[in-house]
């Protein structure tokens, strides 16, 4: 028997999928969770063969739950079953350690096939997900700082020197408001939260001495 833990915060989804899986001679749903925290707890306690993981759940989402499970149990086999195909869901889920990625629009029999294949060590991906991964592999990866304008690079250098916004404004002969806009833009492009993280990024990527 392939023991399965099913984590999804929609009760009707769990009922429908569990009903079908329970009718299979080789699959047994041994536990259900309606949030990420419970999924992590049950996964580490029961060590099921397969974990079906929803992405959007209350308290803790499926990506964070997947990360926590994989950190403590690297051999876990997690199949994402979700409604989302956007990049900010797909890639983080796979990077967190998910083995397979299915959509809730899939038929229950397709999910059962994915369970069997994943149990055997295969990776099962929706065709749309495979396409996204292939396109990403073909697209040259651009360093985040390559998106900065010359002025933003100039301001990043001054931030690394410990300059305040007002000092930067005085040195570059621009308004304080303009400096704040540039700082906000460069933080966004570098995907960091504050000036300190921007400076760390600059040193890490050898943008400043």
Automatic annotation (TrEMBL):
Its main location: cytoplasm. The keyword Transcription regulation applies. Pfam families: GerE, Response_reg. Residues 3-119 form the Response regulatory domain. Coiled coil: none annotated. Keywords: DNA-binding, Phosphoprotein, Transcription, Transcription regulation. GO terms for cellular component: cytoplasm. Transmembrane segments: none annotated. GO terms for molecular function: DNA binding. Residues 141-206 form the HTH luxR-type domain. This is Response regulator transcription factor. It comes from Virgibacillus salarius.
